[in-house]
Amino acid sequence: MTMTPISQALISQLEAIAAVFEPVPIAGLHIPREKELAAGGKRDAAFCAIELQDGGFGLSYLMLGAA
């Protein structure tokens, strides 16, 4: 897989940050269950969350299906 210039720049920045600050371990990944995605018909997007051991979290919006 070929990375775009923006992908390469982001990865480079993340590596530089990780070299200075130790990454916090992941405590959990919260994604919609299949039945929740299927409830009410087909969905083309959903949210997910990542939980860190230090209490931090992040949200992500997922595009589902073909792009």
Features:
30% strand, 67 residues, alpha+beta, 3-stranded antiparallel β-sheet
For the largest beta sheet, what order do the strands appear in spatially? 1-2-3
Q: What's the main sheet like?
A: 3 strands, antiparallel
Q: By helix and strand content, what is the structural category?
A: alpha+beta
- Low-pLDDT parts are none
Counted by DSSP, the helix tally is 2
What's the end-to-end separation, in Å?
A: 17 Å
How much of the polypeptide forms β-strand, as a percent range? 25-35%
Overall shape: it is flat
Instruction: Determine the mean pLDDT.
Output: 84
The radius of gyration computed from the alpha-carbon positions, rounded to a whole number of angstroms, is 16 Å
Percent helix: 25-40%
Report the strand count: 3
Please provide the ordered H/E string of secondary-structure elements.
HEHEE
